[in-house]
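Figure 3 (text version): structure tokens given as input.
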């Protein structure tokens, strides 16, 4: 088992849940997940009760949270989170693809491995409905 194509679930990784680099970086991405570059947003099933896709891997997600200041330009950097398809399960190259992974970049940066997420406010009742689970 390559363990590279995975979703973080506690202390264990599950196969076929996200798009990250599979192979010898940067020479070969084997694409065992079906993708060599960016995957469509719904390529893997949602990994939570809210129906959110691609929380880890595929493309870094821009946030409105200030990360710091770029040392060369003095411009604010905004937080990118989650890693992308060029990142790895354990961070042996580039970044560790994980929900806690963060880095900063300026608002004028662009790359095919950076994206954004549309969000909306939900009521307390909707959150409770979405998160209500029956014990198995």
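Below: residues designed for each position.
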């Amino acid at each position: 088992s390559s363990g590279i194509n995975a979703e973080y679930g506690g202390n264990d990784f599950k196969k076929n849940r996200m798009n990250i680099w599979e192979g010898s970086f940067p020479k070969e991405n084997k694409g065992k997940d079906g993708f060599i570059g960016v995957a469509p947003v719904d390529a893997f099933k949602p990994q939570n009760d809210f129906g959110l896709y691609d929380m880890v891997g595929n493309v870094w997600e821009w946030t409105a949270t200030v990360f710091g200041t770029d040392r060369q330009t003095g411009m604010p950097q905004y937080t990118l989170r989650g890693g992308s398809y060029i990142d790895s399960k354990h961070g042996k190259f580039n970044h560790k693809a994980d929900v806690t992974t963060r880095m900063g970049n300026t608002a004028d940066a662009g790359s095919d491995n950076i994206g954004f997420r549309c969000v909306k406010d939900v009521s307390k009742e909707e959150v409770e409905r979405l998160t209500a689970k029956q014990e198995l």
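Confidence is low (pLDDT under 50) at residues 1-11.
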